[in-house]
Amino acid sequence: MRAAIISALGTIVVFALAAGCYAWWLVEADTALPAQAVTLEVLQGTSVAGIGRQLEDAGVIRSASAFGAFVRVRGGGRDIQAADYDFAPHSSIATVVGVLEAGGRPPTIWVTIPEGFTASQIGAVLQRRGIGTRDEFMAVVRSTNMKFGAVTTRGLEGFLFPDTYQLRRDATPRDVAATLTARFMRELPPDYAAAARKLGRTVPQVVTAASLIEREAKVDVERPLMASVYYNRLRRGMPLQVDATIEYALPTHKTALSFADLKIDSPYNTYLYAGLPPTPIANPGRASLDAAFHPAATGYLYYVYKGKGRHQFSNTLDEQQAAERRFLP
C-alpha cells in the first residue's frame, strides 16, 4: 500500500512538473518571438480569442490558445481597449498581456482628401471612415473662421488643405478641421501676404481664385495662365463666367450645365454677377494656390477646353469664338 501511494505521488509530481514545463514553454518560451518590434491594431469589439489569433498570425506569440488561457487565469481581457499596440522583440505572453492591459495608442487611419473637394465632400469622406458625420463637419466649417490681418474668412471652405492624413480614430470633426487648416497655412506661398497686396486682393479672395483654378484646370502648366484670365477680367469688371461656380451653387453635382443653370440666381453664378464668388468653391492644392498668388503676365481674357486636359487661351472675343468653333462640338 505504501509503495502504491509513493508511486501515485511520483506520478502526480511528474505530471505537475510536465504541466509546469509546458506552461512555462507556452508563457515564457515565447521570449524568442518576435524577432523584431511589431505594431498591431486591435479593433473595437475584438474578442480575446481574436486578439490571440492576431498575435499568433503576426508572430508575436506561438500559441493563441495559450494566450487565451493565460488571460482567463488572470481574469483579464475585458479591459483590453481598441488601440494600436507596440510589442518589443522577444516578448513573453506575460509581457504581451501586460502591454495590452496597460493600454495602447489610439489607433489611426489614413484618409485621403483629393484636391478640389468641397468641404461637404470632405465631410462625406470622414463619415465613411467613421470620423463624425458630414453634417457635424459642415457645422464646424460654417461656424469657424480664419483671420488674415484685418480680414476674416466666411467659414473654412477653401482653407482645408487636400492631402493624405494619418488621423486618430477618436478624432472629432473639429480636430480634423484644425489639422487641415493648420496644414493649409504651412502650404501657402511664403510671400502670400505681400503677393495678395500686389494683386490688390485680400488673401481670402486670392484663395477663392485658387479654388476656381483647382476646379477648372487640368494640368499644372495652365494654372498660372488661368489665373491671369481671372485677374484680367476682374480688372476690367467683366463677369468671370466660370462654370464651376454654378456647379457649386446647384443642389446636386452635374457633369454638364444647361442654359437654365446659367440663369440660376445665386451669388455664385459668375455669369450673372461680376467679381469673385463670396467664398471659395473648393479646397485648392499647392499648385493652384501658387498660381493664384503668382499669376502669369498675359493679356488673356478667355479660354476654352480643347481636349486632352488642355485649354486654348485667347486675348479677344473674336479669337475665343474662333476657338469655340474649332474645339467645341
Task: Quote the average pLDDT.
Answer: 88
Principal-axis shape: elongated
- Report the portion of residues in β strands: 5-15%
Percent helix: 40-55%
The secondary-structure class comes to: mainly alpha
Give the strand tally.
Answer: 8
Secondary-structure element series: HEHHEHEHHEEEHHHHHHEEH
Strand order of the largest sheet: 1-2
N-to-C CA distance: 108 Å
In the predicted model, the low-confidence regions spanning at least 5 consecutive residues are 7-27
Number of domains: 3
How many strands, which pairing sense, and closed or not: the largest β-sheet? 2 strands, antiparallel
Rg over CA atoms, rounded to whole Å, is: 31 Å
Count of helical stretches: 13
In short:
With 329 residues, the protein is mainly alpha-helical. 47% of the residues lie in helices and 11% in strands.
Describe this entry's structure for a reader.
Helix 5 (119-128) runs antiparallel to helix 6 and helix 9 (203-216) crosses helix 10. The chain has 13 helices and eight strands. It has three domains: 29-102, Endolytic murein transglycosylase (Dna Ligase, domain 1); 109-187, no CATH class; 192-327, no CATH class. The chain has helices at residues 2-27, 48-57, 64-74, 93-102, 119-128, 134-143, 173-187, 192-199, 203-216, 223-236, 243-249, 286-293, 317-327, and strands at residues 38-42, 83-87, 108-112, 147-148, 151-152, 164-168, 302-307, 310-314. A two-stranded antiparallel sheet has the order 1-2. It is mainly alpha-helical and 329 residues long. A hairpin with a 2-residue loop joins strand 7 (302-307) and strand 8 (310-314).
